[in-house]
Amino acid sequence: MRRARYLPMLDWAAAYDRNTLVSDLIAALIVTIMLVPQSLAYALLAGLPAQVGLYASILPLIAYALFGTSRTLSVGPVAVISLMTAVAAGGVAAPGSAEYVAAALILALLSGLILVLMGLLKLGFLANLLSHPVIAGFITASGILIAVSQLRHILGVPSHGETLPTMLASLWPNLPEVRPVTLTIGVAATAFLFWVRGGLKPLLIRAGLARRPAELIAKAGPVLAVIASTALVAGFGLEVATVGAIPTGLPPMAAPLFDPALWSALLVPALLIAIIGFVESVSVAQTLAARRRQRIDPDQELIGLGTANIAASFSGGYPVTGGFARSVVNFDAGAETPAAGAFTAIGILIAVLLLTPLLFHLPIAVLAATIIVAVLGLIDFGLFAELWRYAKSDFAAMAGTVAATLFLGVETGVLVGVGVSLALYLWRASRPHAAIVGLVPGTEHFRNVLRHRVITAPNMVTLRIDESLTFINARWLEDRLLALVAERPELDHVVLMCSAVNEIDASALESLEAINHRLGDAGVKLHMSEVKGPVMDRLKRSSLLDALSGQVFLSQYDAFRQLATDPVGGEAKTIAIAD
Amino acid sequence: MRRARYLPMLDWAAAYDRNTLVSDLIAALIVTIMLVPQSLAYALLAGLPAQVGLYASILPLIAYALFGTSRTLSVGPVAVISLMTAVAAGGVAAPGSAEYVAAALILALLSGLILVLMGLLKLGFLANLLSHPVIAGFITASGILIAVSQLRHILGVPSHGETLPTMLASLWPNLPEVRPVTLTIGVAATAFLFWVRGGLKPLLIRAGLARRPAELIAKAGPVLAVIASTALVAGFGLEVATVGAIPTGLPPMAAPLFDPALWSALLVPALLIAIIGFVESVSVAQTLAARRRQRIDPDQELIGLGTANIAASFSGGYPVTGGFARSVVNFDAGAETPAAGAFTAIGILIAVLLLTPLLFHLPIAVLAATIIVAVLGLIDFGLFAELWRYAKSDFAAMAGTVAATLFLGVETGVLVGVGVSLALYLWRASRPHAAIVGLVPGTEHFRNVLRHRVITAPNMVTLRIDESLTFINARWLEDRLLALVAERPELDHVVLMCSAVNEIDASALESLEAINHRLGDAGVKLHMSEVKGPVMDRLKRSSLLDALSGQVFLSQYDAFRQLATDPVGGEAKTIAIAD
User: What's the predicted TM-score (pTM) here?
Assistant: First the structure.
């Protein structure tokens, strides 16, 4: 299976048979129908010509089918990444210009290269820097920004801006210009789509359909809205903004513009797009894989998504990733292998070659309505209340991310969220869990003196460290032990109980040497107990064990028996050390 | 003692008596003698007029005596901070210009404000980001840069540059211009100072002196070199670069220049100066405090060092911090309270008012020699070998920091070091220690199946997590558990043994909910055992416990007894899971 590490296709292609083919074809058909209006809408959200959304749904799907590890993930344009593309490309070029389209291609290329590089270096763990409250906060705030940004298409008036206040401020003065026809179509489409989402499925089930087909038809709601509104506009010649002429033909195959200044200006946005896209996609892929007891490999997923983005950049697309709603439809429709994705790509290609003239009269207000209904599902205010109850620090991370995203923009929002999460994490990591322990009477066990009735001795103190000792907490260890000794003049021995210490890095080793030396100056011996095998092996390669004023005891009980004089207690004791 | 939190003076001033006064006065006298040539030399290293070094040794010492917590730390100019000042000020102004001096004052003010702010916000833990290998690597590389930068004064030729290659490249073409008299004095002074450092103390002891006075006289070596060389140059009228006229009189009292563009350009350098200065100073202060079983408070130290720097910025100085060699002399000379520092300030003030004319003929080559001999003691190549043996990741952090500092400059060096340390830390933190455990026969204990002969059951698996569950390792937990289930089709139960889990943050909670849901889809129940009290209290405020497909067991033994069917083993087993 070694070859399959970089070409996961080898895992499933050999066992491919007629049944699998039929399942994959049916799923591909359903996803294609769903994907056509979605890719048009998200290209619109990204500020790009409608056909770019279709182009981004062809080659990238083939690339992911070859290199991705999820069997059911549906790759293509998604809402949040489209918003981030609009912000990044809008930072270097005017929407509608050729440079803007070029910037979107460069973003796809750069984020693709970043993802592949991270995959080859096995840096998938970097996605961990985005904690759940940060992601949820970012997605919620992005959903709000996206919905507000689409109001202009529903109202039929211009507006711009990248933060909530600037968007609203630029929309406000244009409100008197609202176009009634556009507004009517937009509001009707929005209301219809909301009803489809909630009410159509029960109706179909009552009408005798089984649960799964009922669900799939309900998901096709946007297609119904697209067909009905297009027919309406074409039939009655209504004056609304429509998609207009979409070039028919194969996607343009060309390398993205090489412009060093533009590339370096887009590098950080591309990095953020890569990471947000990866985090979103992996969680969708994991959810679906687990339902069938399959696995995905996050490092290979980086390569799969990376090649998909590189493919997008060479075929007139823009940044893509795995989308939630579409992948669930793919899964529910019975997709069994990534071939379903490749068949979807063929479906979209057929649409590009044959169907685009039919989309001429599709009203943009309807596409905006599909976006609004889709992203309102991303907004999760309930989580605020949950986090407030569960942990204030997580609440702070989410609130900070939401506020920064809404008021400072999406890129600042992600960075603030990561910064807040990391700072909180490092702050906690710098204060590890530890307890002064004593002997539980009648046993050889040692427990926290603050929580149990235990035996201690005035001439010794034992500190049990519950985490690995590294540079993050090395200074804390020094402070803590020196404080202990400063507060207890009667001490002769300090024992570090290392039963939970899995690692001692060079900084902590240096601190232990310093502590040993300083305690020695103060006439106190430093001992260690219950040091794990691998930790001990490493310590033997250092000079600490030679310099140690005390001993290393195999068990804490040995240490206590040998060092304690006049043990006292066995009752709950309070000792003046904050724990 | 609450008041003493922000004014530690109140801790010692009440008990001040005649004996303490005499001890402090003697120490202050000795430190003053040592500090005069040192402050001149370090001002030279910083590219500033000689008197700036003296000014930086007056008010800052008084400020630290009021607000610092170490009783024996000697604050003032130090080598590494002087180098960093030269680099930062050199980035915005030409050495020798009035703007350059103004930039040094702004650096002192900004780093002082940063330190005070960090102290008030109790952000001392941020200093943990500098791991021991990074600090050691930075100090070693800085020592090399400083020594090389001083070669020009020994050789009597101009050179410049901020990295090792640029320094050497600018020195090389000037070598034919070397001035023999300067070179002779410089080499003689260097040789003398090396001999003093190693050979004078044993000689004095053999001559009948006690150990401590012998040590103190040996530390006064630079003063002897200064007096002898000044007399030589003045007596024979030698043509060498000398300190020249130093203005006599009180330090100039003025606020630093307010120039927003300059301030924002110097903000990052000031931050680096603040953090490096703090880390250096705190480790010196801790070493000395521990010898007398005293304590220092790192957060209050931030305030002490911060006010010292602010004082420097208002009295014509430049950034200061606690110096190692000088503090040891202060300690050995018997300083008992921070009043010794205040008396030293008075000593330097007297020197500024009376002694500066005597320094007119002091050769700069001799000051350069004192710097070279001092900083060569900072260089620690032996640590490379130790780290290579002890831990490759720590070696990589040190090597990266040394290379970045030497070849990219001091500021990049610190940033690269912190980046490398943090990345390595987060990488390890994202892969926490965990073990699949089984029952030790005849006991109620559970141990790692890979290391012990234990009993397991085919229908259940128990994973003991040895660290807190947070966003850093939440994704790992999902991957690990889903992999377990994917690889063992016969599983009915997964138990998470949480005996070492001190915290579950919102991201890990979300992961547990997802895992529970996904395992449920796969027909496997998720259980937890030995959840600690505070963790359980929090979980009760979440929806996990309601949704959990399995149970929460008080003890792992209960879980095993209730869930295991057909337990097998009791012999060493190998199970196909990498650990």
Answer: 0.73
